[in-house]
C-alpha cells in the first residue's frame, strides 16, 4: 500500500501550490487560467527544455527563429518572432520571480525545478513586465533544512536519423543544512548532443565553399549549467534566499532545411508563394485571377538571386539547381554549415527577502541581475550555394528590483508594491556574404546592423480582493508605469573577417552606392497602465466560477533593420513602433469532482487587440509593425484518476484570431488584408495516460501521451507555402521505481511515429526559389537511471 500511495503522489492529480497571485494557493483556488506542473511531473513527461512544457498546456505553442535555437512561447495566438534581440517578448518568462528580459534567453535547459506555472491572458497587474499574452514562471528547488538529500540522473539515447546521433545528459543536485539557520543546494547539468541532420555537401555545389570546416552535419550542441542556492533564516519571521546560476551552450549552425517554392506575381507584385511540383522549372508564375497560373513574360521574370536566370536549371530545384531531399528524412546539402559555430552564455544572481511583519502582513524584496551573450548563425538558403548567411548576436544586462507588501483581513486580501527594470542591450545582426559568395564576390562582407537600447521602467502596482458575500468576491488591480528608452542604431556594410564573427571593424562608406552607413538616435518616455476587474463565485468548496476584464500593455520600442530592409521599409520612419494594448474579456470555471479524483477546468475569452506588435518578414528581413487584431477562443483541461494507479489527462484549446489590415510590404499598391497570426494553430489537443502498479518489489509505470497541433503559418503574409502542416506527436515510456524511490530506471521513446513537426520557417522564394524550414528532432530512444538519496 505504501508503494501505491507514493506512486499516486507523483501522479497528475498531485496537489500543486502556486503563487500566481503573489501568495501561496492551491491551483484550484486561483481564479486565473493557469496550467501548473511539479518538477516530478515534468520529468515524467520528458520535459527537458524550457519550451517543452508548451505541448502539455492548452493554448500554448512555440514560436521563434534560428531553427529552434531561439524558441519563444506563443500563448493564445499572441507571439512576436522578430529575430533581433533588441525586442522583448509579449509572453514573459520568469525564473524564481526574476524576469528574463532577452527573448533568446527564454530558451534554456531545465534542471532541478520545483514547478512551472503558465498564466494565460494579460498579467501586467501583478507581474512586472510585458505579459500581454501571458507568462511562464519556473521555480527552482530550494535548500532543505531537514536533512541532506540529493539525486543523480543519467540519461543516454540515440536519434533515429541517417547518421549516428546520440545525446547524453547528466544531472545532479545536493541539498542540506549547513547550520541551524543556513541551508544550501547545488545543482548541475551537462548534456552533449550529436548532430542529427546529415549534410551531404558538396553535392550540387554551385560555388567554392565559404571556408574551412564548411559542410558539417547540424543539430549538435553541448551545454553545461549550474545553480547554487543558499537560504538563511536569521529569525522565525525573516528568510533570505540567494541563488547564483550560470550556463554555457555551444551549437552548430542552425539546422534548417530547404524546400523548393515558387512566387506568384500579379502586375509585378508578389501576391503568393506556393510549394513547387517536381517538374517545375519557372522562376515565378503570373496569376490570372481565375485560380490558374500562366508563364510570366520573359521581361517580367524575377531575377534569380541577382544572377539573371531565365528559368530553373533543374526541374523541381531551386534557382541554382539544388533539389532538396524530401522532408521525410533528415538530410540536406549545405555549404554554410559549421560545427560549434555559435554559442549562448547566461549568468544570474537572485536575492529574495521575505519578512513576516505580523500575522496579517508581509514584506518581500526581490533583486535580480542577469547577463546574456550569444552569437548564432544560419544559412539563409540551407543549400550548397555560397549565397549569404544570417548571424544574430547580443550582449545584454538586466536588473530588476521588486518591493511589495501583502496582507489580509477576515474579508480581504491585498498586495501593493514598486517595480524597477533596467536593460542595457547591444545587438549585432546581419547578413554575411562569405568569400566567393554571390552577394560579395571575392570580398567577404557583413551587411549588418548594430543597435543599442537602454530601458528604464518604473511602476507602482496593487491588487485588492474583497469578499462581497461568503461566496462572492471582487478583485481590482492596477499598475502604473513610466517607460524610458534610449536608442542608438547604425546600419551599413562591414568587412567580414571570419565565418564565426559578425559586424567587426568599421563600416565601409557608401558601399555599392547605397549611401550607407545610416545612423539613427531617439529617446522615448511614456506613461502606461494596466488594470483588472473581476468577480469570483464559489457556490461550494469544489466549484469556482470567475469572469472579468483585464487590460495588458507592452511598451513601444524600435526596429533594428539591416540595410536592405531599412531602405525598403521607408528608412527612419519604420524604426519606432507604438505600444500594444490587449483588452481581455474572460470567464472560466474550476471544478473538483469525484471526491477529489477529477479536476475539470475551462475558460472562454475574447481579445480586443489595439496596435498589436506584429512581425512582418519580407525578402530577407523583417520589421515590427502595429496592427489591430481580435481573438476569441476556449480551453478545457481534464485530469482524472478513475482507479488506483491510473492517471488520465485531456486538454484542448481552440481559438480564432485575426490580424487586421496587413500590407504585403511597405509601399505595396495592393490593398491590405486580414491574416492569421504566426505560430498560432487554431486547434490543439493533448492526451496523456499513466498507469502504475506494484511489481518486482517496487512500482512499475507505463505512460503514453499524444499531442496534436493544427496547421499554422510562419509568415504573417499567410502565403500558401508559408505554412506547416498539422502534426501528431506520440511519446511513450516504461519506468520502475524501487521502494522509497531510491532508484528509478526509465525506457522512453520520444516522437514514436517519427513525425515531421514544423518548428520555424522563412520565406525566401524570390531569393533562392526556396523556403527555409526546420523540424522537431526525429524519433529518440533513451534509457535513464536516477538515484535519490
Mean pLDDT: 92
Shape: globular
Fraction in beta strands: over 45%
Overall number of strands: 44
In angstroms, what is the radius of gyration?
A: 26 Å
Distance between the termini: 22 Å
CATH superfamily of the largest domain: TonB-dependent receptor, beta-barrel domain
Membrane topology: Multi-pass membrane protein
Subcellular location: Cell outer membrane
Domain TonB-dependent receptor-like beta-barrel: 310-752
Protein name: TonB-dependent receptor
Attribute tags:
membrane, transmembrane, TonB-dep_rcpt-like, disordered N terminus, cell outer membrane, 789 residues, Maltoporin, Chain A
Descriptive report:
With 789 residues, the protein is mainly beta. It has two domains: 2-259 and 328-788, TonB-dependent receptor, beta-barrel domain (Maltoporin, Chain A); 260-300, no CATH class. Helices cover 3% and strands 56% of the residues. The strands form eight sheets. The protein has a 22-stranded antiparallel beta barrel. β10 (149-159) and β11 (165-177) form a beta hairpin. The longest helix has 8 residues, at 2-9. The radius of gyration is 26 Å and the shape is globular. The two termini are 22 Å apart.
Amino acid at each position: 500500500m505504501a508503494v501505491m500511495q507514493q506512486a499516486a503522489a507523483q501522479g497528475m492529480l498531485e496537489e500543486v501550490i502556486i503563487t500566481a497571485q503573489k501568495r501561496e494557493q492551491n491551483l484550484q483556488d486561483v481564479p486565473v487560467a493557469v496550467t501548473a506542473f511539479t518538477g516530478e511531473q515534468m520529468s515524467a513527461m520528458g520535459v527537458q527544455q524550457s519550451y517543452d512544457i508548451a505541448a502539455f498546456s492548452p493554448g500554448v505553442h512555440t514560436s521563434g527563429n534560428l531553427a529552434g535555437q531561439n524558441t519563444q512561447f506563443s500563448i493564445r495566438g499572441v507571439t512576436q518572432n522578430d529575430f533581433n534581440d533588441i525586442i522583448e517578448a509579449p509572453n514573459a518568462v520568469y525564473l524564481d520571480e526574476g524576469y528574463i528580459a532577452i527573448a533568446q534567453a527564454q530558451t534554456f535547459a531545465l534542471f532541478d525545478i520545483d514547478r512551472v506555472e503558465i498564466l494565460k491572458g494579460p498579467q501586467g497587474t501583478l507581474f512586472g513586465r510585458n505579459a500581454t499574452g501571458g507568462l511562464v514562471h519556473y521555480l527552482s528547488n530550494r535548500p532543505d533544512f531537514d536533512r541532506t538529500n540529493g539525486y543523480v540522473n543519467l540519461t543516454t539515447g540515440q536519434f533515429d536519423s541517417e547518421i549516428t546521433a546520440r545525446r547524453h545528459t547528466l544531472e545532479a543536485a545536493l541539498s542540506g543544512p549547513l547550520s541551524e539557520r543556513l541551508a544550501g543546494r547545488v545543482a548541475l547539468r551537462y548534456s552533449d548532443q550529436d548532430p542529427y541532420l546529415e549534410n551531404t555537401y558538396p553535392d550540387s555545389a554551385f560555388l567554392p565553399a565559404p571556408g574551412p570546416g564548411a559542410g558539417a552535419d547540424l543539430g549538435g550542441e553541448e551545454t553545461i549549467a549550474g545553480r547554487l542556492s543558499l537560504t538563511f533564516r536569521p529569525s522565525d519571521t525573516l528568510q533570505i534566499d540567494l541563488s547564483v546560476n550560470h550556463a554555457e551552450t555551444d551549437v552548430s549552425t542552425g539546422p534548417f532545411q530547404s524546400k523548393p517554392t515558387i512566387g506568384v506575381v500579379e502586375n509585378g507584385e508578389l501576391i503568393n508563394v506556393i510549394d513547387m511540383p517536381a517538374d517545375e522549372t519557372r522562376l515565378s508564375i503570373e496569376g490570372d485571377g481565375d485560380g490558374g497560373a500562366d508563364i510570366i513574360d520573359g521581361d517580367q521574370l524575377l531575377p534569380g538571386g541577382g544572377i539573371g536566370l531565365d528559368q530553373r536549371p533543374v526541374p523541381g530545384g531551386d534557382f541554382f539547381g539544388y533539389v532538396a531531399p524530401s522532408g521525410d528524412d533528415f538530410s540536406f546539402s549545405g555549404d554554410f554549415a559549421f560545427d560549434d559555430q555559435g554559442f549562448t552564455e547566461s549568468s544570474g544572481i537572485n536575492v529574495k527577502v521575505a519578512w513576516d511583519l505580523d500575522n496579517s502582513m508581509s514584506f518581500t524584496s526581490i533583486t535580480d541581475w542577469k547577463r546574456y551573450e550569444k552569437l548564432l548563425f544560419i544559412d539563409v538558403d540551407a543549400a550548397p550555394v555560397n549565397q549569404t548567411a544570417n548571424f544574430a548576436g547580443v550582449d545584454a544586462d538586466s536588473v530588476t528590483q521588486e518591493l511589495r507588501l501583502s496582507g489580509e483581513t477576515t474579508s480581504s486580501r491585498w498586495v501593493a508594491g514598486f517595480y524597477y527594470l533596467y536593460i542595457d542591450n547591444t545587438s549585432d545582426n546581419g547578413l554575411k556574404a562569405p568569400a566567393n559568395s554571390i552577394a560579395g564576390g571575392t570580398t567577404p562582407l557583413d551587411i549588418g546592423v548594430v543597435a543599442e537600447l537602454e530601458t528604464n521602467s518604473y511602476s507602482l502596482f496593487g491588487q485588492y480582493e474583497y469578499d462581497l458575500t461568503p461566496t462572492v468576491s471582487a478583485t481590482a488591480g492596477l499598475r502604473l508605469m513610466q517607460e524610458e528608452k534610449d536608442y542608438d542604431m547604425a546600419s551599413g556594410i562591414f568587412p567580414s573577417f571570419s565565418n564565426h564573427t559578425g559586424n567587426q571593424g568599421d563600416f565601409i562608406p557608401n558601399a555599392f552606392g547605397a549611401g550607407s552607413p545610416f545612423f539613427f538616435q531617439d529617446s522615448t518616455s511614456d506613461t502606461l497602465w494596466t488594470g483588472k476587474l473581476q468577480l469570483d463565485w464559489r457556490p461550494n468548496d469544489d466549484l469556482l466560477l470567475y469572469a472579468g476584464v483585464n487590460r495588458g500593455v507592452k511598451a513601444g520600442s524600435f526596429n533594428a533593420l539591416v540595410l536592405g530592409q531599412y531602405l525598403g521599409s521607408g528608412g527612419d520612419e519604420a524604426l519606432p513602433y507604438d505600444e500594444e494594448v490587449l483588452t481581455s474579456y474572460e470567464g472560466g470555471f474550476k471544478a473538483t469532482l469525484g471526491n477529489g479524483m477529477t479536476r475539470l477546468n475551462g475558460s472562454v475569452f475574447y481579445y480586443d487587440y489595439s496596435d498589436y506588435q506584429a512581425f512582418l518578414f519580407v525578402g530577407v528581413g523583417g520589421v515590427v509593425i502595429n496592427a489591430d487584431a481580435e481573438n476569441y477562443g476556449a480551453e478545457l483541461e481534464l485530469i482524472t484518476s478513475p482507479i488506483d494507479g491510473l492517471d488520465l489527462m485531456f486538454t484542448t484549446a481552440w481559438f480564432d484570431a485575426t490580424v487586421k489590415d496587413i500590407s504585403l510590404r511597405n509601399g505595396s499598391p495592393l490593398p491590405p488584408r486580414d491574416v492569421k497570426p504566426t505560430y498560432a494553430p487554431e486547434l490543439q489537443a493533448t492526451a496523456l495516460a499513466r498507469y502504475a502498479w506494484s511489481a518486482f518489489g517496487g512500482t512499475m509505470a507505463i505512460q503514453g501521451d499524444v499531442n496534436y497541433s493544427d496547421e499554422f503559418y510562419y509568415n504573417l503574409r499567410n502565403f500558401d507555402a508559408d505554412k506547416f502542416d498539422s502534426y501528431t506527436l506520440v511519446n511513450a515510456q516504461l519506468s520502475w521505481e524501487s521502494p522509497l524511490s531510491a532508484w528509478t530506471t526509465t525506457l522512453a521513446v520520444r516522437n514514436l511515429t517519427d513525425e515531421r513537426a514544423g518548428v520555424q520557417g522563412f520565406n525566401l522564394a524570390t531569393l533562392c526559389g526556396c523556403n527555409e524550414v526546420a523540424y522537431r528532432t526525429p524519433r529518440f530512444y533513451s534509457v535513464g537511471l536516477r538515484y535519490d538519496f
